[in-house]
Amino acid sequence: MTKKLWDKGYEVNKEVEDFIVGNDYALDMQLVKYDCIASIAHARMLGRIGILNKKEVKMLVSELNSIIVLWENGDFKISKEQEDMHTAIENRLTEKLGGPGKKIHTGRSRNDQVLTALRLYYKDSLKECISLSEQLITSMKAFSSKYGEIALPGYTHTRKAMPSSVGLWTGAFIDSMKDNIKLLNGVFEIVDQSPLGTAAGYGSPITLDREFTARELGFARVQENPIYVQMSRGKFEASILHAISQIMLDFNKIASDLIVFSMPELGYYELPVNFTTGSSMMPNKKNPDILERMRANYHVMMAYESEVKGISGNLMTGYNGDIQLTKEPMLNGFSLAKRSIRIGSLLFMNLRVNRKNCKRGLTEDVYATHSEYNLVHQGMPFRDAYTQVGRKYSGKE
Question: Where is 125: in which H helix or E strand?
Fold first, then answer.
């Protein structure tokens, strides 16, 4: 029989239990490794302060590493009855090791335990997003090197405006992606604080070596105030999703441009045929579904950010069960971001530019502003030049 970490000797109504547990046990499968890593650091710290002896620490560390291997091989499971990874891991430790397994939770709560696992996951995921974004910039630069000198119309108000180029267009997103990386690094610095040792949000009755566990886990510093540790859950998550959403906003704009610019009527850019989908009815169709999904996913990410902010708002200080519901949008948000950035790199590696269609698009009106400034260079006042050239396009000439 599964023993719950909070067991008081009574059973919760089954329907109520299902409602409370939700799908946490399934979501936690993504975090098992991080919970074990945090528990290894915690066990070593308990050895330093005399709660565990050397043999017990060794046994716990060995078994926790075994759980990581099982998880990596797909052989570690969490049942709904166990509620979460913490219960599944501690139950196994107790089953395998007896007394040492019962001691592992000394000085901590599931509150700081889940926060620590999540922070470790966030740090790894942020690093991955940064690395993928750098790869995306490399793909964009390669695309620009190949096609950058090709001129094409620039648009304002969805109407032709002035001459642009593939290099100018691509460079805008390269510069923006560099700023996105700065945002990710800034959020990483905020997240890089160890919450372990703050227990349920008011510290522990025993003196813990929090500096030690922070170093063991690779955190830059200890997050000191235990109440702020609990307050920061939701706050940090919203900051992460906001930073990630800036990447998704760029993809939204890239997709919006390419959907229009790859239309056969314009044909400035061309998607490879194996990047398109067909219609179940119309045999002529080659649909830019990849771009439409890319465009829509920005709004999905905004919904995750809004969900996290909404759930974490209006809560008094201290832990509240509501905050558990921020886990799913965070895991989904990171997953969506990583997939999107990879697809973005793949897109720029395969996107083509049709030089002939770009040249055709550079109609006379695109050079109206240049004509205006040619008159200015000849000494005509700007406003007179504007009026003279404007007559040609207003139909009053």
Answer: helix 110-147
